[in-house]
């Protein structure tokens, strides 16, 4: 039942501290039948940690006031006549020729304060509903790379098949709570109707909260109608129970384009949540100082968030942070850097100043699933956790600065997200966990493998990773020296092989199919 | 001067957000002559973050009191007559036959409170002195693996040459502040005199604070004498300015062997700092519950720390935490796990309860420098930072659960330690960093590459990693798709090629050489 090859580990300097059992093979217990990968159960997460405060309260105020100066003196460009009408109506200073909108500081604060601090999104499976804001914590699947990669076929443009497989993986992974806008672009589908196939895949292959792309009106209304069909609800019901999420990126510096604004307004017309994320890569689209980039991020976010509440007071919105830096030698964006960590943590202080749900991301700039991809992602993930982020966008699968969705990275990230969940689980201190009886039973110089305390608990005592290989070097080498990426490759294939789609009533499925077919007819296929 | 291949990055869903310059080669600035690897300067670190509190104050007290119950009712075994004399003299309940010592709770608290909260260690280069305790933060080189590995020659038993090269690397890396006990065992040197060659290498190839192995008396007195020669001081002066560090591992559960106690007492006779680290791998050497393991860790640490202050009141000691878990399927130790993170963070709460400097480690259980090695190490590192650790033992280079020192891992860890230092650097918010003029100058939809604000700052604006590869995929692929481990391989070779030993006066050098020669004669070579 317990390993016997486990020798006495003693000495100084920890020299021999990790003498692993050499003859593991001889002594190991029967291998479990390869079946479902062991995971933590689905569960809503709350972040119990007090966020790090990188900025003093005075510094937060200084950035806040500087942001308001930008909005008052320089303004933002809103490239939509409809948006300009709303802004003018609610008191902003609108220049119709330049489309530049300037905001009185009080106006900004007044409208931003109308946004809710917390809200809930519903999925067609009510057990998968998600709470946003407060100390709720949500991990999403990677969103919107054009390329996909895996160890077998390398990096290539994404296809519908890849998109579906990534959605199946999300559905199979308990710690990936919601979908981004698309797990990868389906480059093999017609451009003007692929959103229909994507939403159809989200709704039939998974039961998670999903997102839609807010470019223009049509994609949003299609997603809304499809969410209603899948959930068996009306548009009016959806208004009170948001079921479609989106993220829009401001075209930093200080511009919001027409298509984005139109999509955003369509979302807000149905009171669906919109994350507003300035695209502030320090040195390129925002000042080379991190503080300057955060100031611009904050100005852009506040301006557009104020607009959201002018358009639809009380509509749920999210403060999005994406501030990172570029490599000043090449211009390449950098992610998972010290600057990214600081930007994410300080951004959280700003988001909380406005009592808004906060979105950041699990990012890295590596080109392969190597050590760099892992340490940059872990740095970003800790920044999210210690920054009080509510929505960890791109939670699993992002590679190459967001240009590629990696099947292996989905698995490694999911394992890391699970470990973070486990770290956040409260500790229980009582007579049973203190374990004094076990300490007495083991005796001096003994071991605990056979104590009653261990026997009662060993099966679920510790987190069991999906990916990490803890075999001793010799066994690992005999097995072909597999890397973490190779383990992940095996795991995603097993998850796909074992995948089962969530149940959907035949009439809803039929209605969804019909909707997609009808809309494709109306749109007419167009391939660029 | 600035990259021009950097296209407009806009859109929603961040689909195109990371469109990197495709034609980087055409536009890049002249490559700097490959010379010294860019690093952050040497600098004492202070951790500005408030530690995470995983345990409530009541839970800390519950563990504290349970630990005292263990010491009162079960006791620890001290396998040294000399130590037993000290313990009996100061009021502990000593059984000479079983060597079991039981402690009255008040006695433990009384003596533990005599240990200093902070102290300083001197190096032969006074600019490399280190402060311990408070919020001081020190990163050490990996300590004591029997094996070494690099990409060229794989994993093999360590040699004196490897040992020297790892010391040269430490000396070349500004963020590796001190040496462990040995960077790798020199298996090619005679066992009973290799400590002389090691300390000689520490003192001539580097100028960092170093450690010695506390097994018996002789190794310690040799290290103390050599530190005195190198520093040009007497033994009496060393007593007031500690210059030799050590770590001892308690042979958990509840045993301290004679050789360790003898080495420890020799250290304390000269008032040199001793870290006391119970070897509590949950499920094997301590209860399968993390809380139980922490309780045993705390009991063992308190008992031996109380002994230290009975032996030499006020001598500097360090509360060491090493609680992790074993894989209950194989018995293999696991590191960089959720349990390790929680153990490290909660351990910090205990160490601070006693106002003692706190030691934990940067650990992982991977067999190669892959993604696993990186995410486990990053998790451990964040646990150290958010747990208020003062001495991050095994800071750079540890692989395979401590059985191997990896040259590539030294570099990747050093880069990660540097990034952590950068994250902890305070943010400055003033008119210059807020950058409003740059935001005005860049204009709407413009870019910041050419603004005066950027030009003044771009060269040192951001952390420049040693290892991370931020080239676009095409350039990276053209360069042979190097992994982070391959970059690290290139870097350690370059650092060794550029290595220059620190200055040492010829007379001190000669005295050191003579000391080693004389002691080897006295000892007589013995090869097991």
What would your notes on this structure say?
The structure is a homodimer of 528-residue chains. Chain A has 528 residues and is α/β, with parallel strands linked by helices. Helix content of chain A is 42%, strand content 14%. In chain A, β16 and β17 form a beta hairpin. Chain A is globular.
Tags for this entry?
19 helices; disordered N terminus; globular; homodimer; four-stranded mixed β-sheet; alpha/beta; 528 residues; 42% helix
* Mean pLDDT metric of chain A: 93
Q: End-to-end span of chain A in angstroms? A: 63 Å
- Looking at how many chains there are and whether they match, the oligomeric state comes to homodimer
Helical proportion of chain A, percent range:
40-55%
Outline type of chain A: globular
Question: Which value, in Å, is the CA radius of gyration of chain A?
Answer: 25 Å
> Reading side by side through the largest sheet of chain A, how are the strands ordered?
1-7-19-18-15-13-11-10
Give me the secondary-structure category of chain A: alpha/beta
Count of helical regions of chain A: 19
Strand content of chain A: 5-15%
The number of strands of chain A is 21
Question: Mind describing the biggest β-sheet of chain A?
Answer: 8 strands, mixed
Low-confidence stretches of chain A: 1-34
Please give the most extensive interface between any two protein chains, plus how many residues each contributes. A-B, 167 and 168 residues
């Amino acid at each position: 039942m317990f390993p016997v090859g486990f020798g006495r580990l003693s000495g100084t300097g920890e020299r021999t501290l990790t003498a692993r059992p050499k003859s593991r093979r001889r002594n190991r217990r029967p291998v479990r039948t390869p079946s479902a990968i062991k995971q933590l159960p689905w569960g809503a997460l709350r972040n119990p940690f007090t966020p790090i405060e990188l900025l003093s309260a005075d510094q937060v105020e200084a950035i806040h006031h500087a942001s308001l100066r930008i909005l008052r003196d320089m303004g933002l460009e809103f490239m939509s006549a409809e948006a300009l009408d709303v802004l003018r109506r609610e008191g902003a200073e609108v220049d119709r020729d330049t489309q530049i909108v300037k905001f009185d500081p009080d106006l900004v604060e007044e409208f931003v304060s109308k946004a809710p601090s917390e809200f809930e999104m519903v999925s067609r499976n009510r057990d998968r509903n998600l709470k946003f804001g407060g100390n709720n914590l949500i991990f999403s699947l990677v969103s919107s790379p054009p390329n996909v990669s895996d160890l077998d076929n390398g990096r290539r443009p994404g296809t519908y098949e890849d998109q579906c497989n990534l959605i199946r993986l999300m559905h199979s992974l308990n710690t990936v709570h919601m979908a981004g806008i698309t797990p990868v672009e389906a480059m093999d589908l017609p451009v003007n109707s692929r959103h229909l196939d994507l939403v159809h895949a989200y709704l039939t292959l998974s039961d998670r909260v999903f997102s839609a792309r807010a470019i223009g009106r049509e994609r949003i209304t299609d997603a809304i109608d499809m969410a209603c069909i899948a959930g068996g609800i009306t548009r009016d019901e959806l208004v009170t129970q948001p079921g479609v999420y989106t993220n829009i990126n401001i075209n930093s510096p200080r511009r919001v384009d027409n298509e984005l604004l139109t999509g955003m307004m369509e979302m807000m017309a149905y009171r669906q949540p919109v994350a507003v994320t300035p695209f502030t890569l320090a040195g390129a689209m925002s000042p080379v100082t991190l503080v300057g980039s955060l100031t611009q991020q904050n100005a852009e976010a506040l301006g557009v968030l104020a607009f959201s509440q002018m358009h639809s007071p009380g509509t749920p919105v999210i403060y999005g942070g994406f501030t990172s830096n570029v490599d000043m030698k090449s211009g390449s964006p950098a992610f998972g850097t010290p600057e990214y960590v600081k930007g994410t943590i300080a951004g959280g202080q700003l988001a909380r100043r406005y009592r808004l749900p906060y979105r950041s991301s699990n990012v890295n700039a590596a080109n392969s699933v190597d050590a760099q991809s892992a340490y940059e992602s872990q740095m970003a993930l800790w920044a999210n956790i210690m920054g009080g982020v509510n929505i960890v966008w791109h939670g699993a699968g992002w590679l190459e600065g967001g240009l590629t969705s990696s099947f292996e990275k989905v698995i490694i990230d999911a394992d890391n997200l699970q470990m973070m969940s486990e770290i956040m689980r409260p500790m229980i201190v009582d007579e049973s966990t203190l374990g004094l009886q076990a300490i007495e039973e083991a005796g001096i110089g003994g071991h605990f493998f056979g104590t009653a305390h261990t026997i009662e608990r060993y099966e679920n005592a510790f987190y069991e990773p999906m990916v990490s290989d803890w075999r001793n070097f010799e066994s690992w080498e005999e097995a072909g020296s597999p890397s973490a990426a190779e383990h992940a490759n095996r795991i995603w294939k097993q998850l796909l092989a074992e995948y089962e789609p969530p149940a959907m009533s035949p009439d809803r499925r039929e209605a969804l199919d019909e909707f997609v077919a009808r809309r494709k007819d109306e749109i007419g296929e167009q391939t660029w």
